[in-house]
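Summary of Year 1 activities. Much of the first year was spent building the evaluation harness for sequence design. The harness presents a backbone, in tokenized form, and records the residue chosen at every position. We chose the following record to illustrate the format because it has been used consistently in internal testing since the harness was completed.
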């Protein structure tokens, strides 16, 4: 099967070396074997996405010689497709509307003696899961709301699932630990989890290359693939880049952006070539875990 990989940045900031590490690996996985390398701009967060970040992303990739196949996909142009996927889950009774604010959830979690935690902190206490159907219908009509997966039901419907990870081997999916995650945000109409699952399938992606910080999310994506009858790609969750102080690049302040390196006249193609050989600029390394 032809390898189809992708790079899927969110244009909410400039790219840094960690992104270069990911993009070069995705490109290198597909291209030497006659495969395709796709680019998807994950701009569902209209409040934080900026056209100037998109322009910088395109310039950074060109600077590194990472040309992509076909047109760039923009998630902001695909809202009807996400709504259709959500409708299927609604029809199957696998999602429910949630009216809670962050403050409501924090209050509820603080009040409970043993709030279970997932990979992103305390899991949703399912407050809106138990609303009476008539109350729910009335509030949906007049209040802003998110849509959450009914995780217990979804896991029961889907049965046992697994995926293949190039680094971790066969992984048994365990989405339940993350609770009733949001599939459609109040403000955006869709969430990362639903958009990425729909789009990887729509683009025919066979190999997802991304950082280990998204490993836990793959449990949810695998479940959504099963519920929406979509294929499961192979996953390559690579270690994250760290600076000399051992801190993750994404959270570091002062790590140079690719744009800054480009504008300083550094050689992007040489950088990509170094990365292809597993070498990083001085002062940068890979996190061990
Ligand atoms: N858009 C996500 C990010 O920039 C990555 C999505 C993915 O690779 O699945 O963190």
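For this record, the design step produced the sequence shown next.
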């Amino acid at each position: 099967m032809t390898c189809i990989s992708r790079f899927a940045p969110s244009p909410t900031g400039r790219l840094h070396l960690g992104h270069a590490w990911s993009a070069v690996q995705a490109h290198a996985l597909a291209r030497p074997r006659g495969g395709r390398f796709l680019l998807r701009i994950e701009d569902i967060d209209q409040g934080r996405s900026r056209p100037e970040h998109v322009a910088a992303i395109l310039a950074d990739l060109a600077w590194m010689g990472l040309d992509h196949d076909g047109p760039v996909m923009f998630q902001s142009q695909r809202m009807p497709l996400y709504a259709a996927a959500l409708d299927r889950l609604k029809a199957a009774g696998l999602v429910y509307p949630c009216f809670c604010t962050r403050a409501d959830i924090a209050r509820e979690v603080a009040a409970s003696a043993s709030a279970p935690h997932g990979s992103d902190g305390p899991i949703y206490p399912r407050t809106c899961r138990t609303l009476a159907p008539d109350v729910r219908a009335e509030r949906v009509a007049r209040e802003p709301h998110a849509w959450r997966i009914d995780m217990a039901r979804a896991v029961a419907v889907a049965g046992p699932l697994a995926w293949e990870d190039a680094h971790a081997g066969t992984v048994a999916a365990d989405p339940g630990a993350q609770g009733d995650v949001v599939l459609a945000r109040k403000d955006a109409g869709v969430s990362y989890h639903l958009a990425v699952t729909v789009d990887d399938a729509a683009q025919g992606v066979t190999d997802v290359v991304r950082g280990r910080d998204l490993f836990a999310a793959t449990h949810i994506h695998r479940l959504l693939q099963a519920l929406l009858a979509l294929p499961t790609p192979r996953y390559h969750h690579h270690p994250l880049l760290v600076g000399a102080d051992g801190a993750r690049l994404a959270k570091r302040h002062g790590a140079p952006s690719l744009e800054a390196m480009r504008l300083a006249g550094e050689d992007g193609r040489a950088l990509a070539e170094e990365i292809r050989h597993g070498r990083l600029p001085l002062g940068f390394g890979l996190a061990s875990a």
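The chain has two domains: 4-77+239-286, 80-184. Quantitative recovery figures across the full test set are reported in Table 2.
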